[in-house]
Amino acid sequence: MQILFYIYLIFLCGVLPLYMKTGYYELGEAKAVCYLVGSAIPAVIALVRALLNFWKKRAEVISAAEFCLFGSIFSVVFSFAFSIDKKTAFWGYEGWRNGLLVTLVAMFIGLFASKRAVIKKNVLVVLMVVPFIQFVLTIINRLGLYPFDIIGANASFLATLGNINWASGFFSIWVPLGMGLLYLQEKLSWTYIFNSIYVIVGFMALCMQGSEGAGLIFVGSFCLLLWCALSDRSSFRRFLNVAGELGIAMFLVDVICLISPDAYNYSPNLLMEICKAHVGIVILAAVFFLYRVSRLFEVISISFRTKIYRTLLVVGVWAAVLLAAFVLYYTFDDGFGNGRGIIWKMCFELYSGLAPWQKVVGIGQDCLYPYAMADAVWSSSFTNVFGNAALTNAHCELLTTLIERGMLGAAFYLGLFVSVIYELVKIYKKEPTAIVCALPIISCFLYNQVSFSQVLSFPYLYILLGIAIGLFNSRNRD
Q1: Contact assessment for residue 36 and residue 102, using Cβ atoms and an 8 Å cutoff
Q2: What is the domain partition of the chain in residue ranges?
Q3: At what angle do helices 458-477 and 64-81 cross, to 10 degrees?
């Protein structure tokens, strides 16, 4: 069974990102169908094993994370039962396909992964090859270079992933995963060198892809990594190593911009402006300084004060959050975040107008647009604002979940992520590999709050959630 799981992972990580039926034309539909076809048999096996396991261990106490995962499955099914468009709720909206079927397939395979919590190092290296290729393609595409012709190619699309939202969702899994692996390595080896190159190229791709919201991937992964690294001096130095890789990546992007100022083929954005402001050099200088201070404190026997450092980190994070909230309060308008302002405003108003029972159970997976089009007032509003474009989600995963699955689904959604991150951080000291799961989970969660889940992110996310559940369940049993 483990070999079959590995084969499926190779399909998911090696075939799905590369698959294109007719170039970028209806790419979301093509990848969703590819995912369903490739996941059909694994999903059935996963469902059967989950039911058998549930029956055998029905009397056992389950963890909070497992409860929330089962609750999420229940909320998806429950929202389908009360959905306003059964066909769309089941299959998903055409060209998008985030309906009941696709969501349950990902969740069932996540449950299966919770019983297969170990992935061997050589298998993981194979799984990272195609994501690395996507990083490289993204960088050269942003420089106006296209090594092969793709139907519908333009600056809005990257590699074989789609637009910047899809690409960033994919990167929110694979870049932090590489960070976690690099952080765990202490000795120089060929694996270390490969991992370093992978992370630097991944950072460059993330800086150059064009989405400002992708900055949340950096924020989430580095803040969580720093929290864990502040456990001792050795871990903190490994964190500095990862931070140094970010400095190198930003410096290389800066050099590219200096050598060829007009090469970048997308609109100016925050991450690129940061790189062009020579922040990479500043990061490298800060890393070198902190490393020397750390060595000095070790030589003169100054103890590593974990509680003080973590308190300072928490204070800094809260200060940044409050500052961001203050700025957002005075700058937020309908055009905020490339139109997300008007989308969030309309979606909040739509949810506020739902019937009380719909606020609890939702209107069904992928049913935002059909619901709006079935209402005379909302149909007119959506047409006036978005024209013929179909708004399939709220561009904020929590808000989308609130509309589609109601308060019940949103509660399980939040509970799942909070409980998993909490448990992973809790076992980190005894099980350092927990950080490899924790970084992509929190990064993807944060990024999705200004974007959306799709078949290039949530299948990997639920597998990581499953592996995380299996990891801390086995550790807690020990």
Answers
A1: yes
A2: 2-477
A3: 140
CB burial string 212-246: b at 16+ within 10 A, e below: bbbbbbbbbbbbbbbbbbbbebebbbbbbbbbbbb
* pLDDT tens per residue, range 206-255: 999 999 989 999 999 999 999 999 999 999 999 999 999 999 999 999 99
d(CA 302, CA 296): 9
User: Is the separation of the CB atoms in 456 and 166 below 8 Å?
Assistant: yes
For 98, phi and psi rounded to 5 degrees? Answer: -110, 40
CA angle 170, 414, 339 (to 5 degrees): 55
pTM for the model stands at: 0.95
Closest CA to 395 of 341, 335, 456: 341
Determine contact, residues 150/160, Cβ cutoff 8 Å. yes
d(Cα 433, Cα 322) in Å, to the nearest integer? Answer: 32
**In this structure, what token pair is assigned to residue 266?**
């997308």
